[in-house]
Amino acid sequence: MRLLLLASGTGSLVQAVIEGLADTGIEIVAVGSDLADAPVLQKARAADIEVFSAHPRDYADRAAWDQAFTETVAGYSPDWVVSAGFMRILGTAFVSRFGGRIINTHPALLPSFPGAHGVRDALAYGAKVTGTTIHLVDEGVDTGPIIAQFPIAIEPDEDEAALHERIKIIERRELVRFLRFLEHSTIEVSGRHVSGYTPSAS
């Protein structure tokens, strides 16, 4: 199985995937970013994984960036693309090319609190429970079919940083488990319903 990872930041999730798949037959063919200086690219290089980057400002418009980014990713012939902390919305060209094969994690229980500030928004709303969602990417913002969800209780007086870190621990573990599952198994998607994957008990 050929896996390509996309990320924008420090790469803690990417690092977890690299380490968590080390004893499998899954090949991480590249790590891509929208930022040439993203720390995640250094983590990938340290693991001898090829990297690439492309920032939208270097293109005539968003559509041109999307098309170029799509072609770059396609050149690696990935079976699956994982958005592992990638902070750009993937456009029409990308989703059309890889639709049904793009995985994302989100730090909330979708459809609640989509977008870039899921943890902050859950706290501001006064939610008592949040968590993380593994889902497929479509052209919306965190609107793709849900693969699995993992709830976590919000502790009294917990701040955003502490809650987000607890969510990330679950996110890293469960994404690795799902990718290991995909090496030998498949999921079925019918409309918004995803079947075939049952998370292991923690």
TrEMBL record:
The Gene Ontology terms for molecular function here are: phosphoribosylglycinamide formyltransferase activity
Where does the Formyl transferase N-terminal domain start and stop, copy by copy? 1-177
State if Zinc is listed as a keyword: no
* Pathway linked to the protein: Purine metabolism; IMP biosynthesis via de novo pathway; N(2)-formyl-N(1)-(5-phospho-D-ribosyl)glycinamide from N(1)-(5-phospho-D-ribosyl)glycinamide (10-formyl THF route): step 1/1
Q: Which UniProt keywords apply?
A: Purine biosynthesis, Transferase
What's any one GO cellular component for it? cytosol
**Which SUPFAM superfamilies does the annotation name?**
Formyltransferase
Q: Which residues form a coiled coil?
A: none
Task: Give the E.C. number(s).
Answer: 2.1.2.2
Q: What is this protein called?
A: Phosphoribosylglycinamide formyltransferase
Q: Which organism is it from?
A: Brevibacterium ravenspurgense
Gene field: purN
